[in-house]
Design a protein that fits this description.
Layout: E1 2-3, H1 23-31, E2 33-34, E3 40-41, E4 53-54, H2 70-73
This protein binds iron/sulfur cluster.
Iron/sulfur cluster binds next to loops.
């Protein structure tokens, strides 16, 4: 397991963006720790078409911090 730092893919909102409900992703985000063997797709709009796969310790200048807990990931209801 690796401790993740700000700027690394594992705690970026775009890491696995299309399936954020996965327990592996939620665990990585809540603990800021990940297996060095885990990879996932980057969902950044500039990279999604090429389906770039990255490791939790990869990174780029488009890093955007993800919310850290499952409760944070629940989207608020849209106003009626
Ligand atoms: S490659 Fe950049 S945008 Fe994609 S998950 Fe990693 S830090 Fe985020």
């Amino acid at each position: 397991m690796i401790n993740l730092q700000t700027g690394q893919c594992g705690i970026c909102v775009h890491f696995g963006e299309r399936h954020q409900e996965r327990s592996e992703l939620q665990h990585i985000r809540s603990t800021s720790r990940a297996s060095e063997l885990y990879t996932d797709e980057c969902g950044h709009p500039m990279l999604a078409q090429v389906r770039l796969r990255v490791t939790p310790i990869s990174g780029c200048d488009a890093f955007q911090a993800a919310k850290r807990t499952a409760e944070d990931l629940v989207q608020p209801e849209a106003p009626h």
